[in-house]
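Researcher: Quick one. two chains, 484 residues in total.
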Amino acid sequence: MDWGTLHTFIGGVNKHSTSIGKVWITVIFIFRVMILVVAAQEVWGDEQDDFVCNTLQPGCKNVCYDHFFPVSHIRLWALQLIFVSTPALLVAMHVAYYRHETARKFRRGEKRNEFKDLEDIKKQKVRIEGSLWWTYTSSIFFRIIFEAAFMYVFYFLYNGYHLPWVLKCGIDPCPNLVDCFISRPTEKTVFTVFMISASVICMLLNVAELCYLLLKVCFRRSKRGQTQRNHPNHALKESKQNEMNELISDSGQNATTGFPS
Amino acid sequence: MSWMFLRDLLSGVNKYSTGIGRIWLAVVFIFRLLVYMVAAEHVWKDEQKEFECNIRQPGCENVCFDYYFPVSQVRLWALQLIMVSTPSLLVVLHVAYCEGREKRHRKKLYVSPGTMDGGLWYTYLISLIVKTGFEIGFLVLFYKLYDGFSVPYLVKCDLKPCPNTVDCFISKPTEKTIFILFLVSTSCLCVILNFMELSFLVLKCLIKCCLQKYPKSLKVLSV
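Model:
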């Protein structure tokens, strides 16, 4: 079980996403998951082993490390990536439910003119409209919330996105204020800034996608409103014509059967 | 043999599950198995090496670590994942047994081996009850073994060969506490999903039974 499985889950959502959504999935897997797996874990691999405090007091290093790094950067990134990818599953579940209902109706004989067989239903690309539009928009909204929340947690936990090379620690059992040295602080800062920038780009893509979906709906509604405005009595005229046609056909029938109209 | 094997086995259960069952599978795969593999396992990686006691007496650290961590939390987590996932295999075995029977007798014995009625309904119900039992059992075990769900930064130990009560410091206690709380919340979520699925199945069966009895009583009334 690894990131490949998450990629399989999320990759399935890809065909029902907008173009911006597809770009977002690519950014997530190439610039965040791959960087996390390939580089960040090497850089943070020996973080506790090489965290050194200027004291021989047993336990001082442990408590100082725990105080300054309550959760490791890479664990926080891994959790962020998992939480940010999961709302896409809402869309996958909605599409699966829609296909299940369509297949059920097909088996009852209701949608025979729309699909040839059950395989056709499975291959159909579901359009983002109606209730799926709401599910998709909510998933993007949750993604934005999770990204922002994790970025804030990062900032709050580590007092910014920069790692210092020395920390001062005076927590029991440390006998006095001791110097503690973090391993590879510059490399860690570089990766932190990179991951934060990738987060920001993903957030911007999500905001753009949200705006695109909202604009699409507004545009579609205004187009529908315009067609109704251009033909204002169109519906009224149609119903009157239908009534007249019925009267004509009724009187025609009565004439053939010989009854007075 | 690795977690992939469990994942592949469980993926086969997906087609015989209800909607809530599929949500349960997604929660187990993503929030428990994936989080365990990419994050939690590494937090407990050097737990014994980084367990430090304020003493130079050889053997003191070993006995104290063994006393406070009889089974490592991360190993208990892995055991819980395995035990909780396996009852779903009862369903797969049942369907395979039905299909095997049909093949042996060379005729159609069941409407469809995968539909949730008759024997398969009972098997599914039993698997749900066993799953829930394991979840709650492991949570209680966790609580009893470690006196709660939080990991302290310091434990006091006076077992032989430690000469007196020594301070022993656990590594990364905050991170471990966060992950244990994450494990407990996902466990509770899975228990709630199991209860929901159980109620759904029982209600569905009761409604079906009532509907089957109701037309008979209608016929009696009309005569």
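The helical segments of chain B are 3-13, 19-43, 60-68, 73-85, 88-105, 119-146, 173-222.
Researcher: Thanks, that's what I needed.
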